[in-house]
Write a structure and sequence with these properties.
With about 375 residues, this protein is mostly beta strands. The chain has three helices and 33 strands. The protein folds into two domains: about 25-205, Single-stranded right-handed beta-helix, Pectin lyase-like (Pectate Lyase C-like, 3 Solenoid), CATH 2.160.20; about 235-365, 3 Solenoid (Pectate Lyase C-like). The relative contact order is 0.08. The structure holds 2-acetamido-2-deoxy-beta-D-glucopyranose (3 copies).
């Protein structure tokens, strides 16, 4: 339902129904029936409601819109591809006010994620806006949570992803964690900041598959597979990535770069780590591996990797006994240049191997 603020806006819309530029009015969404009218306004309010099973709550916003959540949104449960929520538009201010999108995870979870079992809506949340996206909570995603492909600069802040319930096994998961492939953020994009957010999951906290000028800062990652550049496939470029002042707790590894052994013609460069802290790493502190999907298997050399630096504020990582501190597995000739690792301190566990590369300076383990 759209409540028009001014007669002017009303009469303007009446003339130009379809191609209408957005009007200065407030559109309120309390069910899916309200969406198409509400997005004609540049102020959109989302009340608490349940999206029917098998439908995407899709907001195609007018440029410059402001969206405010007034209540929580749930989704009917159904085995289908999703996404459950999608938002697009340029220069958008989206404020969740701390409200929740509830993915109904336990209905889907079977310990297999995207690798088997029932089809799970993934990603759950597709963010295709520029501007700001803040203060939104996601509870219990079926599988992958956010896919971000912003058309221009976007700052994402103060999000919570709480899939911690998926750490427990359930009747379908054969004793394993029921949640699986619950990546926090999958990003193939440019000009993105993700900050001040908390991610509790069972897979990568952040995975950057391609793109440049991405900053990930002051986030807390709990329970999953750490902060990843990759996995990197063929014909992609990644550059200018800043991983700053994050706190990583009880993950498989803290900081990882993973490139596929069969990838060709790709370049990863300019990865900077500063001020990150990590405790309770189960397998590695730092893992740079060109043999993905294997771990420390036979590396490929089709991804050129350069300029990976730990500089500025100290990165302080502690790994569990049985874990390796830093392992680097390069293909012949594919890791190049000089990497400054002077701001990296890893304790616990045992030293990892650094193979096929001698350019790491100011670091010993
Ligand atoms: C979907 O299933 C989950 C888990 O069983 C449940 O908590 C949630 O209420 C269900 N959602 C709806 C809309 O019924
Ligand atoms: C990098 O991204 C930020 C945030 O999205 C943006 O403000 C900035 O202009 C970008 N820098 C360049 C050089 O494009
Ligand atoms: C270097 O990489 C090649 C494959 O590119 C691998 O076969 C070899 O074992 C590596 N060298 C070492 C010392 O690990």
């Amino acid at each position: 339902m759209a409540q028009f603020k001014s007669l002017l806006a009303l009469s303007f819309l009446a003339v130009a129904v379809n191609a209408a530029p957005a009007a200065d009015c407030t559109g309120t969404i309390s069910s899916m029936d309200d969406v198409s009218d509400a997005v004609k306004c540049t102020t959109v309010v989302i009340n608490s409601f349940t999206v029917p099973a098998g439908e995407t709550f899709n907001l195609e916003l007018a440029s410059g819109s402001t969206v405010t959540m007034n209540g929580d949104v749930s989704f009917g449960n159904k085995t289908w591809e999703g996404p459950l929520f999608q938002v697009s538009g340029s220069n958008i201010n989206f404020n969740g006010n701390g409200h929740t999108f509830n993915g109904g995870g336990p209905f889907y979870w079977d310990g297999q994620g995207g690798n088997g079992g029932v089809t799970k809506p993934a990603p759950m949340m597709k963010i295709k806006i520029s501007g700001t996206f803040t203060n939104v909570k996601v509870l219990n995603s079926p599988a992958r949570v956010y896919s971000v492909s912003n058309p221009a600069a976007l700052t994402i802040s103060k999000l919570t992803i709480d899939n911690s319930l998926g750490d427990q096994p359930n009747s379908k998961s054969d004793g394993k964690a029921a949640g699986h492939n619950t990546d926090g953020f999958d990003c193939s994009t440019t000009n993105l900041v993700i900050e001040d957010s908390t991610i509790m999951n069972q897979d990568d906290c952040l995975a950057i598959n391609k793109g440049s000028n991405i900053t990930f800062q002051r986030n807390t990652c709990s329970g999953g597979h750490g902060i990843s550049v990759g996995s990197i496939s063929s014909d992609v470029t990644v550059s200018d990535i800043q991983i700053l002042n994050n706190n990583i707790v009880n993950n498989d590894q803290a900081l990882r770069i993973k490139t596929k052994s069969d990838a060709t013609d790709s370049t990863v460069s300019g990865i900077t780590y500063s001020g990150n802290t990590a405790t309770g790493m189960r397998q590695f502190g730092v893992l740079i591996d060109q043999s993905y999907p294997d771990t420390l298997g036979t590396p490929g050399n089709g991804v050129k990797l350069s300029d990976v630096n730990f500089v500025g504020a100290m990165n302080t990582i502690s790994v569990n006994s049985g874990a390796q501190r830093a392992a680097v597995n390069c293909g012949v000739g594919s890791c190049t240049g000089t990497w400054d690792w002077s701001a990296l301190q890893i304790t616990g566990g045992s030293a990892g191997e650094i193979t096929n590369f001698s350019g790491i300076k100011n670091f010993s383990q």
